[in-house]
C-alpha cells in the first residue's frame, strides 16, 4: 500500500483558557456509525461536531479551503452545520450511537427516523449525552468519582453504554431506561484507559495502567479472564469487526493479537524504530503505544506511538506496510467506510490520513461472515479439515 497522505488538519478554534496540559490534548476522536459526523474533543471544555464530507474529493477541497483560510468544511453537507457542544468540563472520551425511532422515546426527533446521540466523558466524572442534530443535552450520568477516560456503546443499538474511568471502575448504563446505572465493574487497580465492546455485543475488553487487559461478559457482567502477556501498561484495545480477534496496545511498544474466546496470543507486532526515527530513540519507551484500531473490513490495523509515527499493519504480516510521520499522536480511528484514518494529537489538533483501500478476498469475506456468529470453540467443533479450522480461527492467513 501507498504511504498515508495527510489530507486535512483541524486546529482548536479559540485560545486556551487553562495552563495545564490536558486542556489542549485531543484524547478522543469519533466517527458516527453511518460516517455522517465526526466528533473531536479539542480541549477547553468544547466538543466540535463536524458533518463529514461525502468523499475524498470533498475532503481535499476542505483541505484547500483551510489552506486559504476559509471555513468551508461545515457547509459540505447542505443542511447539516458544524456544531459546538459546551460541556463545561474538559472532555476525554467520546462515543456515538443511533437512538432507535419510536414514538415514546426521550429525544424528540423531527422526523420518524433514528436520532444520533453523542456521549461525552468529562473531567469531573460526569457523562453528558447529547442529541447531535439539535445539540440538546439528554442525560447527565453521575456515578464516577474521577475522569471518564473512555466510552463505548453496544453496537447493536440497545443504548447500553460502558464508561471507563480513572476511579478504577467501569460502569454500565442503560439509556433506554433513563440512563440508569446497570452495573459497576471492579477489578482494575489502576486508572482505566480504554473500553471496547465486541461487535457481537458478547464481550467487553478494558485496559488500565496494568500489564494485563480484562475481558468481561456483556451478558452477565462478570470477568471472563485476564489477558496476560504485556511487559508494561496496556493502554488501548479494539475488537475485529467479526469479534474473532482482539488487539491490545501497551507502553512496552508491542501490540498483541488475541483470540478472545480462548485467551490465546496469536501474534505480537513489535514497534521497531525506523531509521529516520533514530534521532528520537535514545529515550526510554520511545515507541510507547498510545492507540490501536482495526480497519472496517478487518484486514488492517492502525497504531499511534510516541516515536512520532502512524503505522498501518496488515493482519498477516508482522511488520508495518505503511508509515506516516506525525507529532505527539494520542489516538486513532478509522472512518467506518474505510479509506481514511483520523488521529488526535497532544497539541489539540486532528489530522486526516489516507488509508489503504482493500478489496476483501472471498475467503476473508466468508471467514468474517462465519465468525460473526460462531465462537472459536464452535468452529473447532465443526466436521471440517484442520487447515480450514486454522484459517477460520486466524491461526493461518
TrEMBL record:
Xref: PANTHER family: WD REPEAT AND SOCS BOX-CONTAINING PROTEIN 2, WD40 REPEAT PROTEIN
Matching SUPFAM superfamilies: SOCS box-like, WD40 repeat-like
Gene Ontology annotations of biological process type: intracellular signal transduction; protein polyubiquitination
Residues of the SOCS box domain: 361-397
WD repeats by residue range: 118-140, 141-176, 185-226, 227-268, 282-316
Annotated CDD domains: SOCS_WSB2_SWIP2, WD40
Classification via SMART domains: SOCS, SOCS_box, WD40
InterPro entries registered for this protein in UniProt: SOCS_box, SOCS_box-like_dom_sf, WD40/YVTN_repeat-like_dom_sf, WD40_PAC1, WD40_repeat_CS, WD40_repeat_dom_sf, WD40_rpt, WSB_SOCS-box_domain
Alphabetic keyword roster: Repeat, Ubl conjugation pathway, WD repeat
Signal sequence range: none
Keyword Transmembrane in annotation: no
Organism: Rostratula benghalensis
Gene3D superfamilies noted in UniProt: SOCS box, YVTN repeat-like/Quinoprotein amine dehydrogenase
Matching PROSITE patterns: SOCS, WD_REPEATS_1, WD_REPEATS_2, WD_REPEATS_REGION
Entry protein name: WSB2 protein
Keyword Acetylation: no
Any Pfam family hit: WD40
